[in-house]
């Protein structure tokens, strides 16, 4: 992974690096590897994640097709 530092602005480069690591799932994997996870728990977690992803995809597809209303913007 590579981040370019422009004009000696290390803070901006650090933010960009953190964003890339977050997108890749590095922090989440580090958290998961902190403790041992039983194989049965791992299977259950991965299955739940897959279900969550498929439901999210189906919900987005239904919104695109107009079957569900899209999220209304919040009013303050």
Count of alpha and pi helical runs: 3
The mean pLDDT is 92
Reading the helices and strands in chain order gives HHH
What is the 3D shape?
flat
Oligomer: single chain
Largest sheet: none
Percent helix, as a range, is 55-70%
Radius of gyration: 19 Å
Strand content: under 5%
Helix/strand-derived category reads: mainly alpha
List how many beta strands DSSP finds: 0
Distance between the termini: 40 Å
Descriptive report:
The chain has 76 residues and is mostly helical. The protein is built from 3 helices and no strands. The mean pLDDT is 92.
List keywords for this structure.
76 residues, mainly alpha, 3 helices, flat
Q: In summary, what is this structure?
A:
The chain is an all-alpha fold and 76 residues long. Helices cover 64% and strands 0% of the residues.
Helix and strand topology:
Elements: H1 10-24, H2 26-32, H3 39-65
